[in-house]
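Z., the sequence and structure:
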Amino acid sequence: MKIKYFPQLSLIVAFITLSTTAVSQNLKITGTVYDSSGSIALQKSVVSLVRLNDSSLVSFQRTGAAGTFEFEVPLDTFIVIIEHPQFDSKTLYV
């Protein structure tokens, strides 16, 4: 199934579900990236995880066919940057 992107949409909206787990003091960050209408999941978006205190890149990945991503990292404060070639980038603080 091919997803049709709408180039006239200028803002990418990410719905992120954050769950902190005390197990091994890890943080699990999961989410789904949608277009600004919230109806189309965006696959192949690049999601980067940057440590807030030193701006180092911790991890990055592309969203899957359902627009989802998941990181499991040590407990810290992060910046999540979501990018897609046809939309403006979105930055979130976690």
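Confidence is low (pLDDT under 50) at residues 5-12. The CA atoms of residues 9 and 24 lie 41 Å apart.

Let me know what you think.
H.
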